[in-house]
Write a structure and sequence with these properties.
17% of the residues lie in helices and 33% in strands. It has 701 residues and is of the alpha+beta class. The strands form 9 sheets. An 8-stranded mixed beta sheet has the order 32-33-35-34-36-37-38-39, with helices on both faces. Strands 3, 4, 5, 6 and 7 form a 5-stranded antiparallel beta sheet that branches. Pfam families: Peptidase_S9, Peptidase_S9_N. Belongs to the peptidase S9A family. It is an enzyme of class 3 (hydrolase).
């Protein structure tokens, strides 16, 4: 066997004794970015480039990915009177740009990330106009760090009114009428909390535009509550009602409070509990009709919409408007209460039925279903947008496997759906055949999987990528993807499994794949692979698996549990050391999803599957490519570094047959990135998987 010299990685004799378990950690030194780690990473990058840069078909693949991404994107409009705001990315742009359209029809740029930073490392994180559309708050981050900085601009002039305000990562914001003040969420300064915990300890504040946020902000809520709480704030359109929610990390439950600002001052709102200490997620919005609309999974794991009186919003007063559906998951709603004088006010309800989106129409007063909103196909619908002042129109985003982002408009007077805006770039999309397969997991649970291939398929097993996520209540629904299209166009198959842990079948589906039930997710994934093989779609020597973040944990567990089942693995920004994950990045906020090593029983769960701790010497592991991002502040790249070193030491496979590689990228983080960087990443990862599974990227199948 010829093994090139993998970069030397010292194995240290480090063993922690945790609740009676001896837990080895031979590569702990790779947690730190010291000189030894930097040298090791530089050698890994050199090895990666030697292994990947010369693979066939890369130039053609790079060009095709650029063409497919040239479709660009467009977002749904947000209305303030006759002014609207939206994002759009033209084919040649690196990032989406925020625009406004004035009442006279003039379109203007408000925020262009490339104008802020021509290097392309600045991303627009979020934006929200005030209730009159005169001012707009937006947040940007740089280098992928996601540490948002908040600014306010005058919409008419584009001039900055204030900013930057730091420590606003994951910070909700809601304007009071008039545009002179807003409630928002901000972290405490580092010197106000224990060392190493400055990313937590959030509070809700009232901020008046133009004042010093460090000295003049008024503390509204959060003092003394859990330091990992995420807060959300919202003010009703008329400015009367303030809602505040709090959730511990990513836990699937929240507490909810409501204040009547007509009877208590904005600086001291009298927040009264609506839901506290209940194992459910609930959101409340006071509508134009004065009713409180309550969106909740309380006693309804597929969610329901209730109404109540905001003056008496207790649970016993809730009345179902849209009850839980036995098969579909309620995801969104919009109120159209002004079709025309004397017309019938309606409510639109957004659903996903086995990961496919639909919208139904209901009588607003009774909730009776009276129709359905036409959509172009079996795809995914974005948020349903209405005019704040009411009306008969709604807008929503739409995409599917061959349709770039599109904005559709629904007219309640006619019942018609029309295309309002399309992605600006022209693109030649290859034909794709999509079929949804239902298969049984190991415990008999039916699981669904979307299988994408060229029409007519082909004879014999084909190179296949199986993708999954399975966590945090996130649903995998059809969407336009340049990487999927390029892979299928070249003759490969792409399969997306809707594993437990996601939200495809509601909150029970999520909870069936979290904490002590996490193995269900891995079993669902293995069963998906076995179904693809049994159906003749692929074979173990032609099957690759792919996942990122929590999906990186998924494929990390898959490759250690069933190394015989997979030929290649793409593991991106992964969690892999589940014993120490809480200590790094945002790990402390995820203990409700996974469990905590500080709790004896929960350590047992984590040790049962933690990929880093299940690497065994002398095992024939698949080819593996880890991709990590230097500025990732969610999942620390140390996970991939340690796992890469462990696999390089342990695998019995020849390097030429099944290399274990690490790709590290600087000036990007966990999520948003420029188009050109996306093209390079996809070129590297797809060419690696193609080489391992036998897919020809140079024109052959």
């Amino acid at each position: 066997m010829s093994r090139p010299p993998y970069p030397f990685a010292q194995r240290q004799d480090i063993v922690d004794v945790l609740h009676g378990h001896r837990v080895a950690d031979p590569y702990r030194w790779l947690e730190e970015r010291g000189d030894d780690t930097e040298r090791w990473m530089a050698a890994q990058e050199e090895l990666f480039r030697k292994a990947v840069d010369g693979l066939p078909g890369r130039d053609r693949l790079r060009r095709r990915l650029g063409e497919l991404l040239g479709a660009g994107s467009v977002g749904s409009p947000v209305w303030r009177g006759e002014r609207r705001f939206f994002t759009r990315r033209a084919g040649g742009q690196e990032h989406p740009v925020l625009y406004t359209v004035d009442p006279d029809g003039t379109e203007r740029v408000l925020v262009d990330p490339m104008a802020i930073d021509p290097e392309g490392t600045t991303t627009l994180d979020s934006w929200i106009p005030d209730k009159e559309g005169r001012r707009l708050a937006y947040k940007v981050s740089q280098g992928g760090d996601e540490e948002s900085r908040l600014y306010v601009i005058d919409v008419a002039t584009g001039e900055h009114v204030e900013g930057p305000i730091d420590r606003t990562r994951h910070a909700s914001l809601s304007w009071l009428p008039g545009g002179e003040a807003y409630y928002y969420v901000r972290r405490l300064p580092a010197d106000a909390v224990p060392a190493g915990e400055d990313q937590y300890h959030r509070r809700v504040y009232l901020h008046r535009v133009g004042t010093d946020p460090d000295t003049d902000d008024v503390l509204i809520f959060g003092d003394g509550l859990d330091k990992t709480n995420y807060y959300s704030v919202a003010v009703s359109r008329d400015g009367r009602w303030l809602t505040v929610t709090a959730a511990q990390g990513t836990a699937p439950r929240n507490d909810l409070w409501l204040a009547d600002l007509a009877s208590s001052p904005a600086e001291r709102p009298e927040l009264k509990p609506v839901q506290v200490g209940v194992d459910a997620s609930t959101w409340l919005h006071v509508g134009r009709d004065g009713r409180a609309y309550v969106f909740t999974d309380r006693d309804a794991p597929r969610s329901r919409l209730c109404v109540t009186d905001p003056a008496d919003p207790g649970y016993e007063t809730w009345r179902d408007l849209i009850p839980q559906d036995d098969e579909a998951v309620l995801t969104d709603y919009a109120v159209l209460d002004g079709p025309e004088p004397g017309g019938r006010a309606v409510l639109l309800a957004g659903w996903t039925r086995h990961a496919i989106s639909e919208i139904t129409v209901h009588d607003l007063a009774t909730g009776e279903r009276i129709g359905r909103v036409p959509t172009p196909g079996l795809g995914s619908i974005g948020g349903i947008v209405e005019r704040p002042e009411g009306g008969h129109e709604a807008w929503f985003g739409y995409t599917d496997n061959v349709t770039p982002s599109t904005v559709l408009r629904y007219d309640a007077r006619t019942g018609e759906t029309t295309t309002w805006a399309t992605a600006p770039g022209a693109v030649d999309v290859p034909p794709i055949e999509a079929r949804q397969v239902t298969y049984e997991s190991y415990d008999g649970t039916p699981v669904r999987m979307l299988v994408l291939a060229r029409p007519g398929g082909g004879d014999g097993p084909r190179p296949t990528i199986l993708y999954g996520y399975g966590g945090f209540n996130i649903s995998l629904t059809p969407a336009y993807s340049a990487s999927i299209l390029a892979w299928v166009e070249a003759g490969g198959v792409y399969a997306i499994a809707n594993l437990r842990g996601g939200s495809e079948e509601g909150e029970q589906w999520h909870r069936a794949g979290m904490r002590d039930r996490k193995q269900n997710v891995f079993d669902d994934f293995h069963a998906a692979a076995e179904r693809l093989i049994a159906d003749g779609v692929t074979a173990p020597d032609r099957l690759a698996i792919s996942g990122g973040s929590n999906g990186g944990l998924l494929v990390g567990a898959a490759l250690t549990q069933r190394p015989d089942l997979y030929r290649a693995v793409l593991c991106s920004a992964p969690l892999l050391d589940m014993v120490r994950y809480e200590r790094f990045g945002l790990g402390e906020t995820w203990t409700d999803e996974y469990g905590s090593a500080a709790v004896p029983e929960e350590l047992e769960w984590l040790l049962s599957y933690s990929p880093y701790h299940h690497v065994r010497e002398g095992t024939a592991y698949p080819a593996v490519l880890f991709t990590v991002f230097d500025s990732d502040t969610r999942v620390d790249p140390l996970h991939a570094r340690k796992m890469c070193a462990a696999l390089q030491h342990a695998t019995s496979r020849d390097f030429a047959e099944a290399p274990v590689l690490l790709r590290n990228e600087t000036q990007v983080g966990h999520a948003a990135r420029s188009v050109s960087r996306s093209v390079e990443l996809m070129t590297d990862t797809l060419s690696f998987l193609a080489a391992q599974t036998g897919l020809a990227l140079d024109g052959g199948a």
